[in-house]
UniProtKB/TrEMBL annotation:
Domain Asparaginase/glutaminase C-terminal span(s) in chain numbering: 229-324
Similarity-based family: Belongs to the asparaginase 1 family.
CDD domains in the record: L-asparaginase_II
Coiled-coil intervals, chain numbering: none
InterPro entries: AsnASE_II (IPR004550), Asp/glu_Ase-like_sf (IPR036152), Asparaginase/glutaminase-like (IPR006034), Asparaginase/glutaminase_AS1 (IPR020827), Asparaginase/glutaminase_AS2 (IPR027475), Asparaginase_C (IPR040919), L-asparaginase_C (IPR027473), L-asparaginase_N (IPR027474)
Tagged with keyword DNA damage: no
Organism annotation: Leptothrix discophora
Residues covered by the L-asparaginase N-terminal domain: 16-205
Protein name as it appears in the record: Asparaginase
């Protein structure tokens, strides 16, 4: 057992490790009816697990739970260093023979970025399940306990694999999930791809295959200084001044959030083309949450297909890190 990991039932045989990283699921407000004016990342992951109804029965039936506090941040403040730490600890526990799966409690704001990164880097053969909440732990309407119970149930499934996200009973592929609502408890989608399935009365009703892929490997995250990748937005009245400033600052990658079928304002496009000629990696992504950039458009800049701009930034970041690692 690693330092900082607490066992909940050392005598059981099947293990699930719950890694805490903060977020609304561990948030608190001064009023149980306040679901907006709370502070995220205040409740420890051990207390979150203790607050999940029905887990005592599962533990008695042979489930061993371990908890580890990897970080305690509001996910809007997610950093490259925390990403690397999450990936390292998740990989460590997934490689243990006595662990069936790993759960990560996370904030909703950047869950789609963390999930995408973990699937690309680890692509695990066991379930690595992210869960979150849209109501703080102090709320009279807290959704975190049920979401966490679902995540633990999903991590126990022998057939489950890959990076997954489960919120409000819906299971998403980690490389497809994205947040689409700022308040509702069912705040996630996967665009046109749809859900992998649903957790209903402790059972998984699966609609399609688990996520798979070739992992990049943890070594790509080893660089002390990660590349600088930024996002710009194409819109009415856009120009290239932001791109010019980013070039002056030494940026190494730019994602442009596009209109239509991956279209870019002409004035912005000129600066992006110049950036590409100067060796800056550029990707186009759709600024809305569904669909893919169809081939055959007049744009010559590379496409991120169906990724959100935030996911496209992670993809570009990983490509640059992989190039650095090979070098």
């Amino acid at each position: 057992m690693s330092e900082g990991t607490e066992a909940r039932d050392a005598g059981a045989t099947r293990g699930v490790v719950v890694l805490g990283t903060g977020g609304t699921i561990s948030g608190k407000a001064g009023d149980a009816h306040d679901n907006v004016g709370y502070s995220a990342g205040l409740v420890g992951v051990g207390d979150l697990v203790d607050g999940v109804p029905g887990l005592d029965t599962r533990v008695a039936a042979g489930l061993r739970l371990e908890v580890e506090q990897v970080a305690q941040v509001d996910s809007k403040d997610m950093s490259h260093a925390v990403w690397r730490r999450i990936a390292e600890r998740a990989a460590f526990h997934l490689n243990r023979e006595d662990v069936a799966g790993v759960v990560i409690t996370h904030g909703t704001d950047t869950l789609e970025e963390t999930a995408y990164l973990l699937q690309r880097v680890l692509a695990p053969s066991k379930p690595l399940v992210l869960t979150a909440a849209m109501r703080p732990a102090s709320s009279s309407e807290a959704d975190g306990p049920t979401n966490l119970r679902h995540a633990i149930e999903l991590a126990c499934l022998p057939e489950a694999r890959g990076v997954l996200a489960v919120v409000a009973g819906t299971v998403w592929a980690g490389h497809e999930v994205r947040k689409v609502h700022p308040y509702r408890t069912d705040a996630f989608s996967a665009g046109d791809a749809g859900a992998i399935g649903y957790l209903e009365e402790g059972r998984m009703r699966r609609l399609r295959d688990w996520p798979t892929g070739e992992p990049l490997g943890l070594a790509v995250l080893a660089a002390e200084i990660w590349p600088e990748v930024q996002i710009v937005v194409s819109h009415g009245g856009a120009d290239g001044r932001l791109v010019d400033l980013l070039l002056d600052a030494g940026v190494q990658g730019i994602v442009v959030a596009c209109t239509g079928n991956g279209t870019v304002h002409d004035d912005l496009r000129a600066s992006l083309m110049r950036a590409a000629r100067e060796g800056v990696a550029v990707l186009r992504a759709l600024r809305h949450g569904s669909g893919v950039i169809l081939p055959g458009s007049v744009e010559s800049l590379p496409s991120a297909e169906g990724l959100t701009p935030a996911q496209a930034r992670v993809e570009l970041l990983l490509r640059l890190l992989a190039t650095m690692h090979r070098a």
